[in-house]
Write a structure and sequence with these properties.
By secondary structure, this protein is mostly helical. Helix content is 88%, strand content 0%. The chain has one domain. α2 runs parallel beside α9 and α4 runs antiparallel to α10.
Length: 208
């Protein structure tokens, strides 16, 4: 249970679906409720597929490129911490490379937004992917893997429910409420990133 809570909390914080709410609202404001629910559903499905692929195949990418786990943890920790700072400063969408003008121009030329920009890079970004690869390396027995997969599934269900309720959330919390919540999550995300870097540095010193 402790592993499940830890994995779920880390994934939910790093993906930060609440930070995607304003973008989702701006991209789907011309759609009806049924269409918005469909977009929310397929976005969460895409995120689930991306997370599972990252979890099961990521380690082979490490072997192919000759990247050590400690190097990945440091790089991933820095990316995650950077995302946390972006949340604290209110620059989350810019950090993800999603400027408002660019989103609006992209929306005019593509009918499918569930994969890009909603799934990638808004929710399942490099930080999330590196985090899952790290977990696969550290928890490689069957029971732990089942727990991690369960946490991934629950996280994507939460993403669906949040995106589905995005207009209600945006109306209830307002811009200031969403910003305040994102800043709180940002602090947690920074701590997760720093912890990854610290653990890898400790491992390096223990091996030397």
């Amino acid at each position: 249970m402790e592993l499940f809570i830890m994995i779920f909390g880390a994934l939910f914080s790093v993906m930060n679906p609440f930070g995607t709410v304003p973008v989702f609202v701006s991209l789907t404001q011309e759609q009806n409720k049924k269409e918005r629910n469909k977009i929310a559903f397929w976005t969460s499905v895409n995120v689930l597929i991306i997370l599972l692929i990252s979890f099961f195949i990521g380690e082979f990418l490490l072997l192919f490129f000759g990247i050590t786990l400690n190097a990945l943890k440091i790089a991933g920790g820095l990316i995650i911490a950077s995302s946390g700072f972006a949340l604290l400063t209110g620059e989350f969408t810019k950090h993800k490379g999603m400027k408002r003008k660019k989103i609006e121009e992209d929306l005019k030329t593509r009918s499918e937004i569930t994969l890009t920009p909603l799934s990638i890079p808004m929710i399942a970004g490099p930080g999330t992917i590196s985090l899952l690869i790290t977990y696969k390396q550290e928890y490689d027995n069957i029971s732990d893997m089942v727990i991690i997969i369960s946490a991934i599934i629950l996280a994507t269900i939460c993403i669906y429910l949040i995106l589905k309720s995005s207009f209600i959330i945006a109306k209830s919390l307002g811009a200031s409420g969403i910003n305040a919540l994102s800043r709180i999550i940002g602090f947690i995300v920074i701590a997760i990133g720093v912890q990854l870097v610290i653990s890898s540095v400790v491992d390096i010193f223990n091996l030397s």
